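FAQ
Q: What does a multi-component entry look like?
A: The components come first, one per line:
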Amino acid sequence: METAMDADIGAALQNTLLEAIAQRTPLRIVGGDSKSFYGRVTQGERLSVAGHRGVVSYEPTELVITARAGTPLAEIEALLAEHGQMLPFEPPHFSAGSTLGGAIASGLSGPRRPYAGGARDFVLGVTVLTGKGEILRFGGQVMKNVAGFDVSRFLAGSLGTLGILLEVSLKVLPRPESEQTLLFESSDRDAIQCMNAWAGQSLPLSGAVFDNGWLYLRLSGSTAAVHAAGGKLGGETVTDTTTFWAEVRDHRHPFFGDGVPLWRLSLPPATPPLDLPGTWLLDWGGAQRWLKTSASAEAVRETAAKAGGHAALFRGGDRQSEVFHPLSPAVAALHKRLKAEFDPQAILNPGRMYRGL
Amino acid sequence: MQTPAAHDNPPLDKPALISALRRLLPAESLLFEREDLRPYECDGLSAYRELPLAVCLPQTVEQVREVLRLCHERNVPVVARGAGTGLSGGALPLPNGVLLSLAKFMRILEIDPVNRIARVQPGVRNLAISQAAAPYGLYYAPDPSSQIACTIGGNVAENSGGVHCLKYGLTVHNVLGLKVLTIDGELLEIGGAALDAPGYDLLALMTGSEGLLGVIVEVTVKLLPKPERAQVVLAAFGDVVKAGEAVGRIIGAGIIPGGLEMMDNLAIRAAEDFIHAGYPVDAAAILLCELDGANEEVSEQILRVRQLLQEAGATEVRTARDEQERAKFWAGRKAAFPAVGRISPDYYCMDGTIPRKRLPEVLSRIAELSREYDLPVANVFHAGDGNLHPLILYDANIPGELERTEEFGGKILDLCVAVGGAITGEHGVGMEKIKQMCHQFAPPELAQFHSVKHAFDPQGLLNPGKAVPTLHRCAEFGAMHVHGGKLSHPELERF
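Then the predicted structure of the entire assembly, as tokens:
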């Protein structure tokens, strides 16, 4: 489990932070630096957590792994795979160096998310270095823990604006015995209907993507169950089951490659096709939709909000302005108060999520 | 200037408050006579009782907002309450505060079978959601034992669990959206029908916040398709350690059961006497292992689990023959608490969690403590997720016995913390485990909890004194808990 590169540099990180607090130097927190495109442009001295790495404990029969934030996701996933387990939320690897800390701080999840849960759902506990310079522990290594506010899950997806994650404990699950991908030719409208109708039935779904006239459906579970569901649903069987899903997860799929500003819309899954110009890739059974468009930010946000969802400028475009969906005044004010309670000097990734946060 | 915590304030002018509330609420929505307040003096943890100044039973969100604004203005503490089934005293009233019952918010606002969500008012009962979703082949997964009575608002406040948590998660994993009123009457809309929301994960913070951060006025939950088939296997063991090992074997084999429950001999006997579930009363422990999902998968897993249980040394392995027998097996487990209530004048239910592998040592230590305190214990265990419910049997009419029970219970929770677990898995801290919070968390973590509370409720008016102890209280308690000659919080002043 231990590797030569394992190191606990928590104390050094704390010292650097304390100095930054004293000097009021803003910090830009970096793990594998694979998501520097994500969020708003933030000014600050680079603070790398990548050296704080290594699996601290792993108990396959307890379904729990604890690792330092700088541990590469690939290393964690390889270890889990040796024991027939996995990270069920399929965190994207935007580069080979993607780390655990970055995965949790960004809170992003792959195609399995609607069926298994997202990054925050699998967080059991964290050790965090807050903007006050304190190392705090929340949650733990047990499945159930309702003592105190759920700060560990709250920190998932906070983009390093509240604290620097040092260690994360995650619930893990067994890898499915069998996986199969089915392919159906379809319109977007029909695909949305099918994906949602199937999600309402007892089927071993683990992915549903619509791209360019084709609906891809992934089934996972026992061989017998996958086989039975495949027989029930029909469609064509795709032989290479892993490449497509990994490419969609990591944005290596050709849809993502062309440098056009990319929007992420998070919507009620059965929302019919939206009236916005551009090209779409639908993931999460329709609940997460990728859009490359020339439409204005206002138009995209308004359309998403009308449908009961929200939109973020995920990659490219103007990253000095707001990239995430605007918050209501009451919620925005609460965000500022929470930020002040975790990072009173506003030195952690300032402005990465929203201006002034 | 530092203002004292609201609950330490001197009692305020009750008649003035009542007349102000009268202007906001219809007569039937306001109780203030002693005999009318009595039904609200406690929640499911009846050892703690207190009468509030008044009980408000608003019927509209606007009324809730007005009550909160008034209390905010007059610095009156507010305790929100659902069905009052909570087991940690979270809804215990404050003598100088308003008890805000959400019981009249009983409407299911929307079942959207296509998006697989339900939008409901906070006073809707947990089971009522699944019943309303049943015609669409859907259900709401978290199923606390009290599900016929407990409300979804209370479930969110406590982050309630149930017997299916290992596979389907706690409340926090099944809630998509909330509408929350803050103490100053501001409406926060958090999340909705999408799988995530922009900004910080306020849903995670609100879920399990025990009424300290806001008052929940609407909840959107996820609905799941009913599994095609569910089947339960019952296994008997000659000793509890073997039963514990069997759990590890099942999970180690890559099987995640829908439910995986353990009961010890005393719990088995009590449940069998009460429900006649067909449990083997001579067994030291039984395991109930439910497998659910696609028909073929369940068939395969049943065979595998039976084999694993036998390898683990089960003295008997029985698969429920039909749906009726399956329901019976579960009825015994779900009625375990009231069953124990039949064999003892009183019982005290603990809710610690532990890493599963530590079960043998924890159970043997509990048995030792049981002898030491001369109080019997029945153990019911959500074995899959390490959530232990020791039920301490006592008689409140015997002077000193409740105090002894509480002390014994406290030691069990300290033990859970010592082996790497938590003082509460699903019942919440409330009033009951406030002391143990000082053992679970160090002062800086507790201070951060107060910081979070401060961001929502700077005056500390929502459910003050519950869930998160002040550092001063920990210092006071600390004097009573001396470990290895060391005080728990040497950095704090003593008084």
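Q: Is there any commentary attached?
A: Sometimes. For this entry: Chain B has 17 helices and 19 strands.
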